[in-house]
């Protein structure tokens, strides 16, 4: 545990002998954790998670009844937010950094896709 935030996110049932069958483990994008579980796994308070949502740093899924559900991606995002706050970045700065990091990731993926297309054209019959 670094800085009060767990390094890895356990999956439900993972601590039991044998754990959950692979097909039953939650996917990183599947929102399965309640706010209290997400708070415990992230080392943050429930009110802090609500604040982050209010400030636009996090957007957990909602059940039809309105209950927040967090995914593995959300928990990784909470770790990143905690890292930035510990580095002295305020919440507005954290939001901007997260937006820029997401944009950079999309651009990297697009560049990789374009490179693959170009390599495919270069190796074809000519």
Task: Please outline the helices and strands.
Elements: H1 35-42, H2 46-54, E1 61-62, E2 68-69, H3 72-86, H4 91-122
Antiparallel strand pairs: 1-2
Describe the structure.
- It is built from four helices and two strands; from the N terminus they run ααββαα.
- With 126 residues, the protein is mainly alpha-helical.
- Strand 1 and strand 2 (68-69) form a beta hairpin.
- A two-stranded antiparallel sheet has the order 1-2.
- The protein is 51% helix and 3% strand.
Provide a short characterization of the protein structure:
The chain is mainly alpha-helical and 126 residues long. It has helices spanning 35-42, 46-54, 72-86, 91-122, and strands at 61-62, 68-69.
């Amino acid at each position: 545990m670094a800085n009060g935030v767990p390094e890895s996110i356990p999956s439900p049932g993972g601590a039991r002998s044998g754990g959950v069958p692979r097909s039953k483990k939650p996917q990183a994008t599947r929102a399965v954790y309640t706010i209290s579980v997400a708070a415990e796994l992230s080392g943050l308070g429930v009110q802090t998670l609500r604040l982050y949502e209010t400030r636009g740093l996090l957007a957990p899924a909602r059940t039809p009844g309105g209950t927040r559900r967090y995914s593995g991606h959300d928990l990784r995002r909470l770790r990143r937010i905690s890292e930035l706050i510990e580095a002295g970045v305020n919440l507005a700065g954290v939001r901007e950094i997260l937006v820029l990091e997401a944009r950079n990731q999309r651009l990297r993926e697009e560049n990789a896709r374009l490179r693959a297309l170009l390599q495919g054209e270069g190796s074809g019959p000519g």
